[in-house]
C-alpha cells in the first residue's frame, strides 16, 4: 500500500476508531475508565501531526513511511479492541435474556469479567503507549505538530444533535432541574447583560443534551424568547461556523461568507429580539476563542435577556463560559434508573412485569451507576412481556 493511501486511512480512520473506543466509557464502565480517559486525551496530540505527515509522505523517505505504518497498526489494534468490547457487550445481553427465568442475576458476573477487564485495560494501555511513542518519534522523522484549520475539520456525524426530543429521550429525576433552569433563563432580574450564559457540565452519559432539549422545548421558553437556535458544536469550535449555523437556522439558507457579512445578516434577523442559543457538546477550552464568539454576539443588537446554554463534559469549559448559576446535575437513583429501563423496554412504561423479571431489572439498574444513558444501553429488549 502506498504511503499516501496508508496515511489517508490513518487520518480518516484512527481518530474515529479511537474516539469511538474512548466513548465506551459511559457504555461499559467495566473497570478501565482511567485507561480510556488517558487514551482520549492523547487523540488531539496525534491529530496535530497528520497534516505535516500528509505533506511529507511523498518525499519523506522510509522514516516517514515507517511512522505512518505504525499509525495504521495502532488503528488496526484499536479497531480490534473496539470490536471485542462490542462483541462482549452483545454476548452479555444475550446471556442476560437467557437467564430471565432465574431469580437472581448480576449483569457483570458472567464469564470471568475480571479477566476481561484486565485484558482490555492492558490492550488499551498498549494503544496509549503506541501513541506516545509515535508522538516522540515524530520529531526524529521531521514531522511538526500543526493545528488544523478548524473550518476544515468535520463534525462527526454520530455526535450531531438536534433540538427534537425522541421517544427514548425521557426526563426522569430531572423535572426540578428543568424547572430551575427555565426559571433562571426567564428571570428578568438576570437581564443585566446583553447575553448571559449557563453551562450544563457533567460526565458522559449524565443526560446533559437531553436536559437541554427539555428546557429548549418548554412552553415558558417559547413565550419568553423571540427566537430559539440549536447548534451542535462538538470537537470543532469555529466562530464563523457557529455564526453561519445560526444564520442558516434563521434564514433557511446555507451561509458560506465572511464574518462581516454573517454579522450583518444576523443583526437584521436578531435586532431587538431576545434569543436562546444552545451550543451542544462544547469541547473548546481556549478562552480567546470563546471571547471572540461573545464579542461577535454582542454586536447583534439583540434585546437584553438573550441567553446561551452550553453543554459540556469539561469543567474548564464551564468556568470559561458561564455567567449564570450552574444547574446541579446529580447522578440518578437506582429507582430512577429502573424507571428509565421500564420506559425504554415497555412502550408506555405501564406493562405488567413479572416479579422475577423485575428483580433482574433492579439488578441492571444498580449497575447503571446513576447514568441515564447507561440505563438505556443496558436495557434488555425482552424485559417487558
UniProtKB/TrEMBL annotation:
A single Gene Ontology MF term assigned here is:
ATP binding
Instruction: Provide a GO biological process annotation.
Output: defense response
Q: Which UniProt keywords are given for this protein, alphabetically ordered?
A: ATP-binding, Nucleotide-binding, Plant defense, Repeat
NB-ARC domain spans which residues?
A: 182-346
Q: Which Gene3D superfamilies match?
A: 1.20.5.4130, P-loop containing nucleotide triphosphate hydrolases (3.40.50.300)
- Source species, domain of life: Eukaryota
Residue stretches making up the Disease resistance N-terminal domain: 14-99
The name this protein carries in UniProt is NB-ARC domain-containing disease resistance protein
Q: What is the lineage of its organism?
A: Eukaryota, Viridiplantae, Streptophyta, Embryophyta, Tracheophyta
Amino acid at each position: 500500500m502506498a504511503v499516501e493511501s496508508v496515511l489517508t486511512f490513518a487520518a480518516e480512520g484512527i481518530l474515529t476508531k479511537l474516539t469511538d473506543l474512548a466513548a465506551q466509557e459511559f457504555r461499559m464502565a467495566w473497570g478501565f475508565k482511567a485507561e480510556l480517559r488517558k487514551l482520549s486525551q492523547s487523540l488531539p496530540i496525534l491529530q496535530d501531526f497528520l497534516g505535516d505527515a500528509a505533506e511529507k509522505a511523498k518525499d519523506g523517505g522510509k522514516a516517514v513511511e515507517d511512522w505512518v505504518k505504525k499509525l495504521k497498526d495502532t488503528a488496526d489494534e484499536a479497531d480490534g479492541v473496539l470490536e471485542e468490547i462490542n462483541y462482549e457487550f452483545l454476548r452479555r445481553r444475550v446471556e442476560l435474556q437467557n437467564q430471565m427465568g432465574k431469580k437472581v442475576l448480576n449483569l457483570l458476573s458472567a464469564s470471568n469479567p475480571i479477566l476481561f477487564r484486565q485484558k482490555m485495560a492492558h490492550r488499551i494501555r498498549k494503544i496509549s503507549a503506541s501513541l506516545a511513542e509515535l508522538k516522540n518519534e515524530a520529531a526524529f522523522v521531521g514531522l511538526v505538530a500543526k493545528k488544523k484549520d478548524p473550518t476544515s475539520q468535520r463534525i462527526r456525524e454520530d455526535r450531531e444533535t438536534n433540538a427534537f426530543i425522541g421517544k427514548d429521550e425521557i426526563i426522569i429525576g430531572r423535572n426540578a432541574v428543568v424547572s430551575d433552569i427555565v426559571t433562571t433563563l426567564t428571570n428578568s432580574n438576570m437581564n443585566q447583560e446583553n447575553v448571559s450564559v449557563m453551562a450544563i457540565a457533567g460526565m458522559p452519559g449524565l443526560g446533559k443534551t437531553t436536559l437541554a432539549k427539555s428546557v429548549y422545548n418548554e412552553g415558558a421558553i417559547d413565550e419568553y424568547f423571540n427566537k430559539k437556535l440549536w447548534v451542535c458544536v462538538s470537537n470543532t469550535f469555529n466562530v464563523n461556523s457557529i455564526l453561519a449555523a445560526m444564520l442558516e437556522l434563521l434564514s433557511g439558507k446555507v451561509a458560506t461568507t465572511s464574518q462581516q457579512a454573517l454579522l450583518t445578516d444576523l443583526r437584521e434577523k436578531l435586532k431587538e429580539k431576545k434569543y436562546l442559543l444552545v451550543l451542544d457538546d462544547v469541547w473548546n477550552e481556549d478562552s480567546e476563542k470563546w471571547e471572540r464568539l461573545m464579542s461577535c454576539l454582542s454586536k447583534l443588537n439583540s434585546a437584553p435577556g438573550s441567553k446561551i446554554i452550553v453543554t459540556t463534559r469539561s469543567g474548564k469549559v464551564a468556568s470559561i463560559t458561564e455567567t449564570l448559576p450552574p444547574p446541579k446535575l446529580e447522578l440518578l437513583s437506582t429507582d430512577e434508573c429502573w424507571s428509565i429501563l421500564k420506559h425504554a423496554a415497555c412502550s408506555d412504561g405501564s406493562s405488567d412485569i413479572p416479579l422475577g423479571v423485575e428483580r433482574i431489572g433492579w439488578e441492571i439498574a444498580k449497575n447503571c451507576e446513576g447514568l441515564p444513558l447507561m440505563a438505556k444501553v443496558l436495557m434488555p429488549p425482552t424485559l417487558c412481556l
